C-alpha cells in the first residue's frame, strides 16, 4: 500500500509590502502636489543649493513637507534594513512583523535622539546651531531615503542582493552622510565656531556615540 506523506507548505505573501510601497508613492504625490515649488527645488538638491538657501530657517524643520518626507524615509530605510537581514539569514523579506519592528525601532531611535538633542542644546545654549544643523541633516537624509526607495523596491521583489552590492550601497550611504555633515558645517561655520567647544561635545555625545554603540551591538550579536 502506498504511503502518503503530507507536508505543510508555507505560502509567503508580499501583498502588505506592495501596499506600503504604494502608500509611499502616494505620499510623494501628496508632497509634490501640496508643495509643488518646494518639491521641485528639493529634487534638484543634488545639483543645486537653491533649496538649502531658501529653506534654511529652523522653523521649516517640523513643516508638513518634512513630515511627509520623514515618513517616506523611515519606510525606505526599514525595507532596506529588512532586505539586509533577510540576505544574511536573520529574517525574511515577506515578514511583515519584522518590518513593523524595524519601522518602530527606527522611529524610537530617531525621535529619542532628536528629543535628547533638544535638551542638550537648551542646556548648552546652542539651540539655534543645533536646530539649523538638524534641518540640514533632515533635508539630506530624507533625500537619501527618497533615492533609496526605488532601490529597496527592486531588491525586495528581485533576487539581486549580493554581499558586494550591499557593501557598495552602504558605503555610498555613509559617504553621502559624511558629506551632509561637511556641507552643514560649511553653511553654518560662523555659528559653529562661535560655540565650538559645545558643538564638539554635541557631536561626540549624540552624533558619534549612538552609532558606535549600535555597531558594537551588531558585531557582538
Task: Give the helix/strand layout.
Elements: H1 15-34, H2 36-43, H3 50-54, H4 64-87, H5 96-124, H6 127-157, H7 163-187, H8 189-194, H9 196-220
Structure explained in plain terms:
This protein is mostly helical. The chain has nine helices and no strands. Helix 5 runs antiparallel to helix 6. The longest helix has 31 residues. It is globular and about 55 Å long. The termini are far apart. About 3% of the residues have low confidence.
Number of DSSP-assigned strands: 0
Structural class assignment: mainly alpha
Mean pLDDT value: 79
Low-pLDDT parts are: 6-11
Shape: globular
Characterize the biggest β-sheet: none
H-E string: HHHHHHHHH
Name the helicity range.
Answer: over 70%
Provide the gyration radius in Å: 20 Å
| Strand fraction | under 5%
- N-to-C terminal Cα separation, in Å? 51 Å
Please report the number of helical segments.
9
Amino acid at each position: 500500500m502506498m504511503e502518503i506523506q503530507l507536508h505543510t507548505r508555507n505560502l509567503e505573501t508580499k501583498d502588505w509590502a506592495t501596499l506600503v510601497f504604494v502608500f509611499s508613492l502616494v505620499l510623494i504625490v501628496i508632497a509634490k502636489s501640496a508643495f509643488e515649488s518646494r518639491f521641485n527645488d528639493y529634487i534638484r538638491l543634488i545639483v543645486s543649493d537653491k533649496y538649502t538657501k531658501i529653506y534654511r530657517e529652523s522653523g521649516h524643520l517640523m513643516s508638513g513637507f518634512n513630515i511627509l518626507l520623514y515618513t517616506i524615509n523611515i519606510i525606505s530605510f526599514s525595507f532596506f534594513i529588512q532586505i539586509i537581514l533577510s540576505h544574511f539569514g536573520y529574517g525574511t523579506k515577506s515578514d511583515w512583523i519584522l518590518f513593523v519592528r524595524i519601522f518602530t525601532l527606527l522611529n524610537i531611535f530617531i525621535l529619542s535622539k532628536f528629543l535628547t538633542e533638544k535638551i542638550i542644546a537648551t542646556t548648552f545654549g546652542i539651540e539655534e546651531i543645533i536646530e539649523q544643523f538638524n534641518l540640514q541633516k533632515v533635508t539630506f537624509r530624507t533625500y537619501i531615503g527618497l533615492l533609496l526607495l526605488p532601490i529597496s523596491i527592486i531588491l525586495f521583489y528581485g533576487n539581486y542582493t549580493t554581499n558586494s552590492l550591499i557593501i557598495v550601497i552602504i558605503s555610498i550611504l555613509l559617504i553621502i552622510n559624511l558629506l551632509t555633515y561637511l556641507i552643514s558645517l560649511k553653511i553654518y561655520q560662523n555659528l559653529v565656531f562661535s560655540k565650538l567647544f559645545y558643538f564638539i561635545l554635541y557631536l561626540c555625545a549624540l552624533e558619534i556615540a549612538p552609532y558606535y554603540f549600535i555597531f558594537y551591538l551588531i558585531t557582538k550579536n
